[in-house]
Design goal:
The chain is α+β, with helices and mostly antiparallel strands. Helices cover 23% and strands 19% of the residues. The chain is built from 15 helices and 22 strands. The strands form 7 sheets. The chain has a 5-stranded mixed beta sheet with strand order 9-8-7-10-13, sandwiched between helices. Helix 9 crosses helix 10. The longest helix has 19 residues. 15% of the residues are buried.
């Protein structure tokens, strides 16, 4: 031995070890010495057997012909070879059964008891030792348990997030939806933008997630203009509407991400599956929906009005304190304290005075409705009036009934005063009673009788006579004299049977193809004479609109075919308002002007002739350059 002492060897033979990767290591000429407390393997013997080693960082690897067959870790100044778990347990049990003086198992190992007790925590082991349930353990070998990491790893909790120091430095955004109940305007999503410094929020309703970039553009233009600051960072989750898509080559930004790049705004995204990294928006959406559900539960309004409750909730959250900031978001955003004196219970009943220029003297001054919010761009209130022609109205004149207690009639009634003539028969007062019919509301057709005390035992009751209305005996004259004849072409002649072609190919394949071709040539001739267009090559970066032929069979007042007309029209519906044009108009004549002309003709006994100006719309001058495709069937090649 190392101390030059001799110990007895009871047996010599081959011993097989099963390593952690399943390799069988046979130790030849192995000595069995029960007096030694540890199993020792000679590296020189392994080297002679053809094995190689690699040491470093408290670990070693065992190789056989450049293939790693086992590994071990440094423990108590010696390298401990890692064995198969089931084999090691069998080995330990075998040594216990033979009753060796010093077994292979260290009963004071905290790591051993950690595995025996199902990988419980170190704190629980210390409590067992403190309560004297376990003996004193050596916790030096209980450092890192890889099996615990694999089985117990959780998501890291975000703590101590960095807060911004000024407005618009960080903007949090998130989309919530879709909802099973569409809003009053058929929206199913909403997007929120929350300033990190003040916690002041904005909310926008969306029909679909792709409209998020439009809401972002509106929000940034508004807040940057109002605060005279620039948005620096926008923080969102990794949804496709924000991030775009990701593959092996990297990020492929969508419209939202491209807009941020164009504006020089830094985009910050959460890691996949970690919504807590966008906790500000997540908590804001949860608070909004909790308050919306509570407000709808407290009212009798339809659920489709949830978007008005949502906007009201955001309006209120901006004016109440928050744990994240010391002042209200409104005060940090605007620099002045908010006023809460104008707030009312959402969904409460109200009597609303709506502006009506045609209001009569005896009309009701208010209509019944429900309070549903505060307008964004007006100083007043927004109400839901289910019985009014316009169900959503805005006004500043209203009486709120917040306690739910009302007096009087809830439903308004129409007050109509009519003059009714009643013929009362002249009878002896001693033998009859007077019957007077009462005129009640229009919806009540019953008549009540006011009875005087009876004079005789057998009173005579006379029913009121039927009222006879006097009709005028004058002759009725027609408003239209016999000199004029009105022709109802569609009804009298049944001209709706014309199946006019709807395309160029259909016109050319019809029975009247020659007539339609002549009509198209006549249309192009008029355009050529008026210099409507010039044939040019499409400039780079410009878009063109298509064109279409419109065919119509013209008939006279007797239903006979007068001519075949073909019109070439541009597909203006492909253009967008505000980009390709700013205004649209179509000049027409007023009815008053036509009536004045007809009156002058009749008064001075003049003759009136009717005329039709062909291609009248071609006389207008365009200020913009509009590029259109050549008409189908008349394309000039090379131009």
């Amino acid at each position: 031995m190392g101390n030059r002492e001799k110990v007895p060897v009871e047996a010599v033979g081959t011993y097989r070890l099963i390593l952690d990767i399943g390799f069988y290591l046979d130790l030849l000429n192995n000595f069995y010495v029960p007096s030694i407390s540890r199993n020792l393997i000679s590296l020189s013997k392994l080297d002679v057997a053809g094995y190689s080693f690699k040491f470093g960082n408290g670990c070693f690897s065992l190789y056989k012909s450049t293939c790693m067959i086992g590994s071990g870790t440094l423990s108590d100044g010696l390298y401990k070879l890692n064995l198969d778990n089931l084999y090691a347990e069998t080995l330990m049990t075998m040594h216990h059964n033979v009753g060796t003086k010093h077994g292979l198992v260290n009963e004071c190992s905290a790591y051993l008891w950690h595995k025996r007790l199902g990988h419980i925590s170190k704190e629980r082991l210390e409590r067992l030792v403190k309560n004297e349930i376990l003996p004193n353990l050596d916790f030096t070998d209980l450092n890192v348990c890889v099996d615990c990491i694999k089985g117990k790893q959780t998501k890291h909790t975000k703590k101590g997030a960095t807060r911004s120091n000024q407005l618009l430095e960080i903007i949090h955004t998130d989309i919530c939806g879709p909802f099973d109940v569409s809003s009053f305007n058929k929206e199913k999503y909403f997007i929120t933008f929350t300033d990190d410094f003040s916690r002041y929020g904005h909310v926008y309703l969306l029909h679909e997630k792709s409209q998020a970039v439009n809401a972002l553009e509106i929000y940034i233009n508004e807040v940057e203009r109002q605060l005279d600051r620039k948005v620096k960072v926008v923080r969102s989750d990794r949804g496709g509407e924000y991030y775009g898509r990701y593959d092996e080559s990297g990020q492929h930004p969508g419209p939202f991400a491209k807009f941020l790049e164009q504006r020089g705004i830094c985009a910050q995204y959460t890691m996949p599956g970690t919504p807590q990294q966008n906790g500000v928006s997540e908590r804001r959406n949860r608070t909004l929906m909790d308050m919306v559900r509570s407000m709808l539960s407290n009212s009798s309004l339809p659920v489709s009005l949830w978007m008005y409750a949502l906007k009201t909730t955001m309006y209120l959250l901006n004016r109440v304190p928050s744990k994240a900031v010391q002042k209200t978001p409104f005060e940090l955003w605007t620099g002045r304290k908010p006023s809460l004196r104008h707030l009312h219970v959402w969904g409460c009943q109200a009597e609303i005075r709506v502006y009506n220029p045609h209001e009569k003297k005896l009309d009701a001054r208010t209509i019944s409705g429900y309070f549903i919010g505060y307008p964004e761009k007006s100083k007043g209130y927004r109400f839901y009036c289910p019985t009014h022609s316009t169900r959503i109205v805005e006004t500043g004149n209203a009486r709120f009934i917040e306690n739910g207690e009302t007096s009087g009639s809830e439903a308004s009634r129409n007050v109509e005063i009519k003059e009714v003539r009643v013929q009362v028969p002249l009878t002896n007062a001693s033998t009859s009673r007077i019957v007077v019919p009462l005129v009640d509301e229009p919806h009540n057709n019953q008549e009540e009788q006011i009875n005087d005390p009876e004079v005789n035992n057998e009173p005579v009751v006379e029913q009121p006579q039927e009222i006879v209305l006097r009709r005028s005996q004058r002759e009725k004259r027609s408003a239209i004299s016999n000199d004029y004849v009105v022709y109802l072409q569609e009804s009298e002649n049944d001209l709706s049977i014309d199946n006019d072609p709807v395309s160029f190919s259909e016109a050319m394949n019809s029975d009247n193809s020659d007539k339609w071709l002549d009509a198209m040539k006549d249309e192009l001739k008029s355009m050529t004479q008026n210099c409507v267009w010039d044939l040019v090559e499409l400039p780079e970066g410009c878009k063109r609109v298509g064109c279409k032929w419109v065919f119509k069979t013209k008939r006279n007042s007797h239903g006979n075919i007068e001519r075949y007309k073909a019109q070439l029209v541009a597909k203006g519906f492909t253009q967008k308002d505000g980009i390709d044009y700013k205004e649209t108009f179509s000049p027409v004549s007023k009815k008053d002007s036509f009536r004045i002309i007809m009156a002058l003709v009749a008064h001075y006994d003049l003759e009136l002739h009717q005329m039709d100006v062909k291609t009248a719309f071609l006389n207008g001058d365009l200020e913009e350059d509009v590029y259109m495709d050549q008409p189908v069937g008349f394309i000039e090649e090379g131009k």
